[in-house]
Specification:
Layout: H1 3-8, H2 10-14, H3 20-45, H4 50-54, H5 57-83, H6 97-106, H7 111-134, H8 148-156, H9 159-179, H10 181-184, H11 188-202, H12 208-220, H13 233-263, H14 267-271, H15 277-305, H16 309-312, H17 316-330, H18 332-355, H19 372-378, H20 382-402, H21 404-408, H22 411-425, H23 431-442, H24 449-452, H25 455-460, H26 500-504
Helix pairs in contact: 3-9, 3-23, 5-7, 5-9, 5-11, 6-11, 7-11, 7-18, 7-20, 9-18, 9-23, 12-13, 12-20, 13-15, 13-20, 15-18, 15-20, 17-18, 18-20, 18-22
Transmembrane segments: 26-45, 57-74, 149-168, 188-212, 239-263, 275-294, 338-359, 380-400, 412-436
Keywords: Membrane, Transmembrane, Transmembrane helix
Organism: Discostella pseudostelligera
């Protein structure tokens, strides 16, 4: 095969040049990951995690493995379902019938938004479960005879759990699903996950977020483009009843956290006893804001990519941000996504520690005098997942979809962008590409262009992708339509991404 043929082939189009530095980062990350896996296992089998202590180490291990496996599908499926809507489903209907079923459900009406909302809660809930299974109860306890400085980095700071969760449960599956969308969800596990996410949304636990969605639309003066008729009658009443129920649940969850923090009944008081109540409350809102800002940045940057330079770079920080993200054919955008994931997961674990309850049922100290069963249920972090999903994730994403330029031109987001790129530059998560390569071969995943061609080829064959506009992002969680993540695109997550400016250049 000639060099030209290699460049045109799907494999060659997605390959990156292996430099000595890149190989070193791969090796370093894999070593850190292996050490983190051993460390988490050691914590479980010494009874130094919550689930291991309250049940037994094998339960903690099995639950953790199951949670990681499900997290890989939840994260990967999102990349597939957000990327496939512009593509004509008839192109893969016969070759991938289950993918077609996934799309038939997800792309009907506003189901994609429902899935994404339910999926967001599932991510937080699963991450909180992983935290309960693998996070140390006491970081000072001896583990594997590690010196204090290693324990500080991997246990106190939590690098072990961050790498464990990011690399094993999130990044590698996102790498594959971004470019193997059609193969990735061609299974009943994906279909089950889709229905589960939609059932979670249907319960109404997250419906208070829809109130925020509508408020953002009103404040911005931008309408929410829906694929369904306006709700009327019973459907409308049922919708707002769930919004009210969700507000009550959210209020209860916030009350639980605040009372527990004041009374010293959270896990942060166990792990870090020197932290005062006031500081704990401050850190709770601080890390919630960090998560929210990073979630908003993702949406804002995707929206911004569909605008011209003049439309998106309206201030000094906006210009700096866009230069960093989109110069050189967008080479820094994937780096931001990786660094962002690291920071978000780290913040998730910190919020989980701050909101996690340290109340033993049956001792008469149950919060608000609830039953022992209810207390045991809360101890596994449901209230923290609800708060984080609504207030630290979905709310900020809706805000970014309505006001993308406000986030792009902010000095705070600029600082977080630099931080994310610095974290990615360390190579701590580069092992995700190694795992992705292995899993791609094991699962026999093929790049999307093998089945449906590239966007350019689909256009040439009179099967062009549906156009996605910035107006369609308002009030939605997709951030979709960015050309760099188009199905079959040769602009991979591990390579350059084309901005609108690059596409419009002669």
């Amino acid at each position: 095969m000639t060099d030209t043929e290699i460049e045109k082939s799907p494999e060659g189009a997605h390959d990156v040049e292996l430099t000595p530095l890149l190989l070193f980062k791969y090796l370093l990350s894999v070593c850190v990951l292996l050490f983190s896996i051993i460390l988490v296992g050691a914590l479980m089998f010494t009874g130094n995690t919550r689930v291991a202590k309250e049940t037994n180490p094998w339960v903690a291990l099995i639950v953790c493995i199951a949670a990681i496996i499900w997290l890989t599908m939840i994260e990967g499926q999102q990349a597939s379902l957000v990327g496939l809507p512009p593509v004509d489903p008839e192109l893969y209907k016969d070759s991938h019938p289950i993918t077609y079923k996934n799309g038939a459900v997800a792309f009907k009406g506003d189901n994609l938004d429902r899935y994404l909302m339910g999926r967001q809660f599932m991510v937080l809930m699963v991450v909180f479960v992983i935290n309960q299974c693998g996070q140390p109860l006491d970081p000072t306890v001896d583990v594997l005879g590690m010196p204090d400085w290693v324990k500080f980095i991997f246990l106190d700071i939590g690098l072990g759990m961050i790498v464990f969760t990011c690399v094993l449960g999130q990044l590698h599956t996102q790498v594959n699903a971004t470019h193997c969308m059609i193969d990735f969800i061609n299974n009943y596990f994906a279909l089950f996950t889709l229905y589960t996410a939609m059932c979670v949304e249907f319960t109404g636990i997250m419906h208070s977020a829809y109130l925020i969605q509508n408020l953002m639309s009103v404040v911005s003066g931008k309408p929410i483009i829906s694929n369904e008729e306006p709700k009327t009658g019973f459907t409308l009443a049922f919708f707002w009843a769930r919004v009210l129920m969700s507000l009550c649940i959210l209020g209860f969850c916030m009350a639980v956290v605040m009372v527990a923090l004041v009374n010293g009944d959270t896990m942060v008081a166990v792990k870090y006893p020197d932290i005062s109540v006031g500081l704990s409350i401050f850190l709770f809102f601080f890390f919630m804001s960090v998560v929210g800002t990073l979630e908003a940045m993702q949406i804002a940057y995707f929206c911004s990519a569909k605008l011209t330079w003049e439309e998106r770079a309206q201030g000094i920080f906006g210009k700096k941000t866009n230069h960093i993200l989109f110069d050189g054919n967008g080479r820094n955008f994937p780096g931001f996504m990786i660094g962002r994931q690291l920071t978000v997961v780290a913040s998730f674990f910190l919020v989980a520690s701050i909101t996690g309850l340290n109340i033993t049922p049956g001792e008469g100290n149950n919060i608000f005098g609830i039953s022992d069963g209810a207390q045991q249920f809360l101890n596994f972090g449901l209230h923290g997942a609800v708060i984080t999903t609504i207030l630290a994730s979905i709310t900020w994403q809706y805000a970014a979809s309505a006001f993308p330029n406000a986030f792009v031109n902010s000095p705070i987001t600029y600082v977080l962008l630099i931080l994310a790129l610095c974290l990615e530059g360390t190579g701590i998560c580069h092992g995700a590409w190694v795992i992705a390569k292995v899993m791609k071969k094991v699962c026999k995943l093929q790049y999307d262009e093998v089945y449906v061609g590239t966007p350019e080829e689909r256009m040439a064959s009179s099967k062009p992708d549906k156009e996605m506009t910035p107006a369609q992002d308002v009030g939605h969680l997709t951030g979709g339509g960015f050309a760099g993540f188009a199905c079959g695109s040769h602009d991979p997550l591990d390579g350059p991404i084309r901005s609108k400016d690059a596409m419009e250049a002669p």
